[in-house]
From TrEMBL:
GO biological process: mitochondrial ribosome assembly
Official protein name in the record: Mpv17-like protein isoform X3
Keyword line: Membrane, Transmembrane, Transmembrane helix
Family: Belongs to the peroxisomal membrane protein PXMP2/4 family.
Lineage: Eukaryota, Metazoa, Chordata, Craniata, Vertebrata
Membrane topology: Multi-pass membrane protein
């Protein structure tokens, strides 16, 4: 019975190997040599930014926002966080400071250096 499961597919070890190679996702799709480079460079900065952002969001959520608006407020804050993460992935270093510098350059008409 067990062999009939594997008749049309590769053995489990081969499937696990393929899955492990796909794990880093976007770095592979971008064709980067070191697929863990973004993780090494940006993880701790992004993590610390999140530790400053989310407690502030929850503090304001439970102290200032009416009960019937809390879900919408948290959803909006989650959307803003996801936008920050996308920016950080593309051109930032995982800090809020890099985002402000980007917007100040944009207002002044300067372009950040392309990678």
């Amino acid at each position: 019975m067990e062999e009939s499961i594997y008749l049309g597919s590769p053995p489990p070890r081969a499937r696990a190997g393929r899955r492990a190679r796909r794990a880093p996702g976007m770095s592979i799709l971008h064709g980067k040599d070191d697929i863990f480079l973004d993780l090494k460079q940006k993880f701790w900065n992004t993590y610390k930014s999140g530790l400053m952002y989310w407690p502030f969001v929850q503090l304001t959520n439970f102290s200032l926002v009416p009960v019937h608006w809390r879900t919408a407020y948290t959803g909006l804050c989650g959307f803003l966080w996801a936008t920050f993460l996308c920016f950080s992935q593309q051109s930032g270093d995982g800090t809020v400071k890099s985002m402000f510098i980007f917007f100040l350059r944009k207002e002044a008409g300067d372009r950040p250096p392309e990678k």
